[in-house]
Amino acid sequence: MEKMRDSIDFKNTDIKTLFRKLLLPTVLGMIFSALFIITDGIFVGKGIGSDALAAVNIVSPLWLFSTGVGLMFGVGASVVASIHLSHGKVKVARINITQSVVISSLLLMCTSTLFCSFAPQVVKLLGGSERLTPLAVEYMLWFVPFSLFTALLNSGMFFLRLDGSPSFAMMCNVVAAVLNILLDYLFIFPLGWGMFGAALASAIGTTVGALMTVSYLLRRRCALRFHPVKMSRKSMQLMRRNIGYMCRLGSSAFLCEVAIASMMFVGNQVFIHYLKEDGVAAFSIACYFFPIIFMVYNAIAQSAQPIISYNYGLNESQRVRRAYLLALKTAIGCGVCFALTTIFCSPEIVGMFIDRSYPAYDIAAKGLPLYAIGFVFFAVNIVSIGYFQSVERAKYATVITLLRGFILLIACFFGLPLLLGDRGIWLATPLAEMLTTLFILVIYISGKREDKEKSVSLDKTGCTLT
User: How far apart are CA 327 and CA 308, in angstroms?
Assistant: First the structure.
């Protein structure tokens, strides 16, 4: 077990060295998670067709909901646990992660049962047309019941990294992704199981990855492991308080996933209105390609998170600031690379998912370069949200998420097509991200101004006293 753990000193190690040590396995793990989704899209598009691709996009918000729940409890519990660990309160940190896993699992068991009980109605509510509904329902009924494991896999990554095992956290994602790729091919092509096969492959991969994280947290040699939950009245009251606080800290992580779901939901509505089912199929390619970008940014933010929150608990403001700026520079550099690659290689990207014979091919090939304009702004926004979560400024993180994922996004999706036509649909997300970045810049400038005024005020007070 000791071989699983890496030697990580969040307090004394140089910030760049610490960040690099966490970043590589975290990014690799996230890339494999993205490959999990992208491969699913490639096999569905090539093996079943563009309608199947559109159908999966219709029910994707349900997968994002379970991912969001896992991230909310993962972020919230890991921030609280890391602050307790910095003060030497190991038992309290263990209790925090156990409570988060228990409550998130119970929540998803209830919601999954509800969604599956009313599957056709849920699909129609998500914007499924008469042509796409049967395929969407088939996929949904074989994937949603495993939502619990999706959440466990996502929250477990935070706990493993905080315990000093980023490499094992990466392996959980790698195993899940490789299993999904192999089973996707087997179920869709040789066995010809269609949507059922695609959903089952994803479910099995996720479940195995999640069970790996659970087995790690059950080991007694781990510093951060599960702790028995007491059922007394006082313990239940404390759990309710702890869960409430974790949810507040992690709410913006949940909202980030819901924001992607909102983008898919509203985008599906707008695309089907202007460009019918072929437009939804084209948009689904952007939605399949999008996770690899989001997950790399998320990996950068998550690599900085334990460094920032641990040193925040020790009041090491300079180390906190250095970690944030390093994460920001890294994310912006990745954003520029992603944007240029997408702009110049959009036909090749689209060709991975569907053949040129489908009308959706030309729609997507023309739209992806416009969509890519927002990747750099998206980088700034995701890393900044992660920073505010890590320093217990959940209100800022939530406001930023609401702006970029709901308020500005919905306004742009419905407003820009009226001004720019079809091009406006693709430019809606980039414009929402750009306006959010401007809002973050305003917060940063205001914060610097306030700090300067406080410093001047203290200097004046010091002079008077002298």
Answer: 11
